[in-house]
Design brief:
Blueprint lengths: L3 H11 L3 E8 H4 L10 E4 L12 H13 L6 H10 L3 E4 L5 E2 L11 E7 L5 E5 L18 H20 L4 E2 L1 H9 L9 H14 L4 H7 L4 H16 L9 E7 L2 E6 L2 E9 L21 E2 L2 H6 L10 H7 L10 H5 E4 L9 E4 L9 E8 L7 E10 L5 E2 L2
Parallel strand pairs: 2-3, 4-6
Antiparallel strand pairs: 1-5, 1-7, 5-6, 8-9, 8-11, 9-10, 10-16, 12-13, 14-15
Length: 392
Amino acid sequence: MTSDATARSARKVASVLPALSGAGPFADMLPAAARLPPETLFHAGPPFDAHSPIPPPVLRSAAVAAVVEGWAATPEEGAAAIRAGGIALAPAQDNGLVVPLAFVAGPSTGVLRVTDAAGGGGALAAINDGPPDGALRFGAPDAGTAARLTRLNDTVAGALDAALRDDPVPLIPIAAAALRDGDELHGQVAASSAAILGILGRRLAPGPAADQVAAASQFFLNVWMAACALMLQAGAGVAGSRLVSAAGGNGRGFGIRLAGAPDRWIVRPAAVPDGPRLSPALADVAALPAIGDSAVIDACGFGAQAFAFAPGLRAAFGDAAPAGVASAPDRLLCAVHEGFGALGVRVGLDLDRVGEAPFCANLAMIDAAGERGLIGRGIAVLIDGTPVAPGP
């Protein structure tokens, strides 16, 4: 049974009406009083264990991010500085940002801002960095990745901000329509991305920025990550609440934070997603354990918790879907978000209910060696009711 404190948190989550309202460099989008630590890059999930090596895809992405920031002349120099501690790594969510998969952000990274149309705070997400080949989020950057990221930071972010700052885009109507069209808003975002790209395409002047945005076929995913992070953050600060207020994997551990203790990570070993590979040639490539802050989508109530809306994705995953996932929303989530109307969408993951049904997330699979990039997609059982250990 959900406690009164957790139920209060969940009602706060269900009251948020997220809207895409701006874009710009990460450091410039923080609240006035906030400052980023010097020479620090920001990764998904909880802090890394000092005794475990950084996963190769994250290290490769971080090394390129160091080049983009001007802290290293080459990725090799960047990787050496990270290993030596001259460039630090820190969780993005500890600094108000969510990043996908193995993406690593720096102060100049172009980010999107999502704010609550009903009043309240905001959350940030890295802008989608384009098609898979060489995309930083897949942890296998190529020789052109740094230049593409620099162009995104310097050109695309500003164009998006000009298109949004005086006319934010409400996100619940897009999400609701997409659920009806077969998205679950994590593994499947075709309808939602088409809708928001249509809106932005009418606002952006023809040119490189418009072209790069149009090429990002999963553009809505990062937007919705920020929206879900914003909703979860709204539930934080209620003493005793066991509502999950943050979630993410770093390729080694999977971490959550609770609304009653929002500054403390609780970490367990990250599970490897199970599901179809992109091709038979990738069948034997080892997949990295759960990676990315996109788990906030599933913790909010979408992704694997919204499988009922995505028959195409259910069919693609087949036997990878664990028993109990279909009934998970009613068993794990403790508030109805009225903004979704007759869809009856539930939000707010109650940690005390995990065990009645597993908490799962729909995740992309990337090559654990950091060489092949995206290799498939699947479902990871992230919390199954067994005790979770406190994090750092």
